TrEMBL record:
Cofactor: Mg(2+)
Record-linked PROSITE patterns: DAGK (PS50146)
Annotated PANTHER family: LIPID KINASE YEGS (PTHR12358:SF106), SPHINGOSINE KINASE (PTHR12358)
Chain's gene name: dagK
Gene Ontology biological process terms from the UniProt entry: phospholipid biosynthetic process
One MF annotation (Gene Ontology) recorded for this entry: ATP-dependent diacylglycerol kinase activity
Domain of life: Bacteria
Family: Belongs to the diacylglycerol/lipid kinase family.
Protein name: Diacylglycerol kinase
GO cellular component: plasma membrane
Ranges in a coiled coil: none
Natural source organism: Mariniplasma anaerobium
Length: 299
């Protein structure tokens, strides 16, 4: 087995670099070949993943959701794809949590030595690939609007502060959604799409019933029709993403969403598209390492 460790030195609180020597030792001890690559700037890992996908069996990716998303975008552009194993060292680490990867590095590495990878769906927003979330409207900009300086200083709390500021802003925009033959037209304050039950470090146990390999994606349209709308939205999140009467929940393989040109879309926590989008799910597109528990529940 040939591994490539790719890491983003600025993920989370920028502390991963210190662990590299120990990781190298872990692999040397087991006579496993590992190359190491540090990203130099945003976008770097996508190109590295695309051009070297055929040269490795496993991409070991150390970073947060943005870093993993970059690598996945690179891998999806290659015909031959190695397996993906994550070492969580970002701020929210949603993707790692969805796959049940332990925060503790040694437990994660041992898990990768012991278990086989499984095939997981990957989603596409226009030309860009994403793993687990697409969103617009309230709260959807915070993951990429918060400065790295604040994340380094406050960690996850930096997202919480920014969420509180964004929550009081006015969001109301039209959307026309086509999903596998169904049509929905409404005004909304947020559209949240998930392939699992986690976003922004929160577990939304009542949001989704989909598996990670069933070719389906779920979208919740939070309308802006009722009074005290923000409080109702907050109460839905507090109750694990419980659906409210005035909201719509769609499940499908292909979504066409038309909205205002200035509406920004977030994909896996990064700024993605503006205006109209199409979302497709590519079934069982990528081989990933998951914990045995998640494998039973989510696959
Ligand atoms: N060498 C680099 N210098 C600056 N930015 C980088 C570099 N390599 C990658 N990036 C960018 O850093 C951003 C943040 O990375 P990442 O998402 O992994 O960390 P995070 O935001 O702390 O974690 P999370 O997304 O889990 O909250 C990504 O948008 C990525 O494209």
């Amino acid at each position: 087995m040939k591994y490539l460790l790719m890491y983003n030195p600025v993920s989370g609180r920028s502390k991963f670099k210190k662990k590299i020597k120990q990781i190298k030792r872990f692999f040397d001890k087991r006579n496993l070949e590992i190359d190491i690559y540090e990203s130099k700037k945003a976008g770097d890992l996508e190109l590295k993943a695309q051009h070297h996908a055929k040269d490795y069996d496993v991409f070991l990716v150390a970073g947060g959701d943005g870093t993993i998303s970059e690598v996945v975008n690179g891998m999806m552009k290659s015909e031959i794809r190695p397996s993906l194993a994550i070492l969580p060292c970002g701020t929210a680490n949603d993707i790692a949590a969805i796959l049940g990867v332990p925060r503790w590095l040694w437990l994660a590495l041992r898990m990768y030595m012991k278990h086989e990878p499984v095939l997981m769906d990957i989603n596409q927003m226009n030309d860009r690939y994403f793993v687990y979330t697409a969103a617009s409207g309230v709260l959807s900009r915070i993951s990429y609007d918060v400065s790295r300086r604040k994340i380094k200083k406050y960690g996850y709390l930096a997202y919480v502060f920014e969420a509180m500021r964004d929550f009081v802003k006015e969001y109301n925009y039209p959307c026309h959604i086509e999903c596998d033959g169904k049509v929905l037209e409404t005004d909304c304050m947020m559209i949240l799409g998930l392939s699992s039950n986690r976003v922004g470090g929160m577990r939304l146990i009542n949001f989704s019933k989909s598996k990670l390999n069933d070719g389906l994606f779920e979208i919740r349209v939070f309308t802006s029709r009722r009074r005290f709308r923000r409080f109702r939205l907050a109460s839905s999140f507090i109750r694990g993403g419980k659906k409210l009467r005035e909201d719509f929940h769609l499940v499908g393989k292909h979504f066409k969403i038309e909205t205002d040109d200035n509406i920004l879309w977030n994909a896996d926590g990064e700024a993605a598209e503006k205006g109209n989008i199409e979302i497709r799910t590519i079934e069982k597109a990528l081989s990933v390492y998951v914990s045995p528990r998640r494998k039973r529940k989510q696959f």
